[in-house]
Give the backbone structure.
Amino acid sequence: MTRLFDLLLYAFTWLCGLILVGAFGTLVVFLLINGLLALDFELIFGSTAIGDALFLKRVVIDGLLPAIVGTCLLIIIALGTALPLGLGAGIYLAEYAGKISKSFFSLIFDLLAGVPSIVIGLFGFSLTLYLHKHFTSIMPCLLISGLALGLLVLPYLIRSTQTALEELPTTLRLTAAALGADQAATLRFVLLPQAVSGIFSGIILAIGRAAEDTAVIMLTGVVATAGIPRSLFSNYEALPFYIYYTASQFRNQQELQRGFGAALILLILCALLFTLAGLVRKKVSKRLMAK
Amino acid sequence: MKRSVRVGRPLVLAATAVGSLLTLAIFAFMMMLGRPLFSDHSLNLLLTQAWAPDRGLYGIFPFICGTLSLVGLSLLIAFPLSLGNAILIHLLAPRRLARFLHQTIKLMTGVPTVVYGFVGIFFLVPLIREWFFRGSGMCILSASLLLAMLISPTMILVFLESFAAIPTAHIRALEALGGTRRQKLVHVILPGAKTGIITGLLLALGRALGDTMIALMVAGNATAAPESVLDSVRTLTAHIALVMAADFDSMEFKTIFACGIILYLWTALLTLSLRYIHYNSTKLSHDQTF
């Protein structure tokens, strides 16, 4: 009986492992086979000369450059707005909040973390509609998308800041207090410098999230062809949307190839960011262990 | 330094307040824009009717069915798969292989959903079409398989965390009594990780409910309620993405706010249940220690 159970358990778990890793491996290999050949300068710059494209002398029409630039701008806007809020709220929850306000606010931020990204996109869109009634010039645009993405990554930033501060050893706080530092000085000169890599790994994950999300930007102003955006209030292209759009609207083999190239680039980008965040995180836990 | 005390606290409190207000504003905005839908009569129609704008029917019932069938099937696939993987990594695999599996699964949580959708369209959908000789291949089954792949890593990581949190004393005690591996799994690990297993399931459920891209790209977006796993469906999330009608006063357009509100409420309910479970389990372990 025990032998049979062990045998079945072995067979079942190994099968599960094989299926999952096999599926992931298939995905990666499939993208590599179809996308690797497309990866070159032409994929990004199209038929435009690289110099002309980079200095905005000529518009890149058949390359990924506008989409890549769009995604980078989105990341900058999203992190630029969410970072101060996320750091502030994280510090408040870890250091200042009383028991009741802490559990209240962390419930609210848990709710925010659970909101599906398409609903955040819908919020951005409704906000645009509302603003449009009062200022007719406001349409779905780069700025709105960036702000909505900021709201999407906000809970990640809050939680990573809060955990990074809370997992610091109590001895640090005691030592600082014994040396006569008040709460603010302890935070500024002792705790934050110690927590910085933990916070940093949260930021990297937030960048990855902002780079890959498609649902939010779909509702707030991304388009298939816009070129490099000229202002915060114009339409723009983005890498994940390009992938989605190509999958349904490609007209010839060449466009499909570019879609594969874009998917491969996005996958590699996210994997790199993810690994980087993991390494930073590992460094932190090693240092904490040493203490 | 005195100044930083005075400035610091209000500043971080303000950041917290702004973040919280935004969270509530999401809900408030959807309620405001979807308000015309909430008279008793039309709410009932909205939730029970079929979707056929040409006949004046604007019910989102088929999309609720679509979402639930997709999420249900993906959990049915992902739950045993995740439990098997977690047991393999925690208990059975040699250490180095277990580490490799663990790292790979961590990496999988970073795969963009649009990439899953893209590979789904060009790899999985043709395969399903050939295997079942029916339809376009864009169906509940294809989308569920991809969704299962999306949510499994989350579930496995939560399971593993809860396996690791089981007190070593319990395991040592069982080993000292000469317990078998089966007894260890059935009598110590699985019961001890019950809360973690439920947590992982609920988190995965939330992720599957909220996913847009896989459903939108691979599930086929048919507007009728599904009858088999090879039927196409449209989910609530995909409906929001698809109906961006130019006419903002149309009934069609208003339904997307109903979808948004339903999704918000469902995920809020999940968050609250997670909180409740967590609260109960910490209280319990507290009672045991003292």
